[in-house]
Amino acid sequence: MTPVRNPMSVMQSQIDGNTDSIAHETIFVNDLLAQINQVIVGQEKLVDRVLTALLADGHVLLEGVPGLAKTLLIKTMAEAIHADFARIQFTPDLLPADLIGTQVYNPQMGVFSIHRGPLFTNLLLADEINRAPAKVQSALLEAMQERQITIASKTDKLPELFMVMATQNPIEQEGTYPLPEAQVDRFMFKLVVDYPARNDERNMLDRMTGATKPHARAVVEPATILNARRLVKDVYVDERLKDYVLNLVIATRKPAENGLANLKPLISFGASPRAGIYLIEAARAHAFLHGRGFVIPDDVKEIAPDVLRHRVITSYEAEAENISSDEIVKQILTKVNVP
Questions:
Q1: How many of the other CB atoms lie within 10 Å of CB of 254?
Q2: What is the DSSP letter of 256?
Q3: Sign of the CA dihedral running 105, 109, 111, 114
Q4: Helix 273-289 to helix 239-253 angle, to the nearest 10 degrees?
Q5: How much is the mean pLDDT over the chain?
Q6: Whole-angstrom Cα distance, residue 161 to residue 243?
Q7: How many Å separate Cα 227 from the centre of its chain?
Q8: Are 308 and 329 in contact (CB under 8 A)?
Q9: Which of 275, 214, 225 is nearest to 250 (CA)?
Q10: Number of C-alpha atoms within 13 angstroms, CB side, residue 238?
Q11: How many CB atoms lie within 10 A of CB 107?
């Protein structure tokens, strides 16, 4: 007679196996961070979130003033991963063909050939995405979601390792085209980048004004990142944590039913179902980066503000009272019971 196995022991065995496997596979993370930290000073949280999004197969929207190493970070990461990097400066006169590519006529052969645009890369920096008109924004965001591009009825798939880091300048709004909420929702994270601490900025002065500027060397192959993504999918998430994530998302839509009646007039629209999916995926990647084969509540709480801040749309009343979506999310995280 076949013995009956305890489901709890089977689950624990799976978690232990995941943790042992992850402990071995995350060795590359330390090498990658070492190379990034040779170039980037401070901004530890920014680096952590970009790596989290990279492992969770998500895209990142950055908001911060110029000069905070946003371009340098993704370029350095591309160098350390031995991946292709492209930067597109979004301007009002940009056309969709400038991103995805176009047909070019070859007079010698008498045929049209496809000229691929800069979107065909691994890591893409979309600088000041809100400076381009809606058609250009749509072309980029469609590529982000579908992972393919169609030019003259011919569809080409983007590389399997593909990540977009888009930036917005919060200071200058003249001549900009704000991203619609439905398009912003396609970004896993919205990160607010602040000025570095004084000591970090002092180190930056020494490092970037020396005789030779630091640069990263390739220590990771794209295949390693893709393999890590598959391992991230196996990180265990308890059913109670899934319910916790769902409670957080629903609390943004129905705050009064979750003991947060004071937030109801402050929220116009709550988070979409995509928020819950990204919370789980990002929490898994966060656990992976910390060498665990299972997600804990702190993983969810740590990344929740970056997943939810652009999905909680504040009302006119909230704007009048100078209450941001960050403050609303903070109250929700404090009120919703943690398993």
A1: 13
A2: G
A3: negative
A4: 140
A5: 85
A6: 31
A7: 18
A8: yes
A9: 275
A10: 14
A11: 6
Q: Outline where DSSP puts E strands in the chain.
A: 60-63, 85-89, 101-106, 111-116, 123-127, 148-151, 154-157, 163-168, 189-192, 267-269, 313-314
Class of domain 235-335: mainly alpha
Mind listing the pLDDT tens digit for each residue in 301-329? 999 999 999 999 999 998 899 999 999 99
Question: Is 26's pLDDT higher than 70?
Answer: yes
Q: Taking residues 296-300, what's their average pLDDT?
A: 95
Residue reference for tokens 């991203």:
179
Q: How far apart are CA 331 and CA 177, in angstroms?
A: 31
Which residue, chain included where needed, has tokens 């109801």? 264
- Which of 53-57, 106-110, 159-163 shows the lowest mean pLDDT across its residues? 106-110
- 97 pLDDT band, cuts 50/70/90, is confident
Query: From CA 312, how far away is CA 252, in angstroms rounded?
Result: 7
Are the beta carbons of 55 and 228 closer than 8 angstroms?
Answer: yes
DSSP assignments along 154-198, one per residue: EEEEPPSS-EEEEEE-SS--TT--PPPHHHHTT-SEEEE--PPPH
The pLDDT score that the predictor gives to residue 195 is: 84
Yes or no: say if 22 and 293 are a contact pair by the CB < 8 Å rule: yes
Q: What is the CATH number of domain 13-225?
A: 3.40.50.300
What are the sequence ranges of the domains in the chain?
Answer: 13-225, 235-335
Assigned token pair, 285? 């990647």
Q: Which helix (H) or strand (E) holds 223?
A: helix 222-233
Banded model confidence at residue 172, pLDDT cuts 50, 70, 90: low
The whole-angstrom separation of Cα 58 and Cα 164 is 8
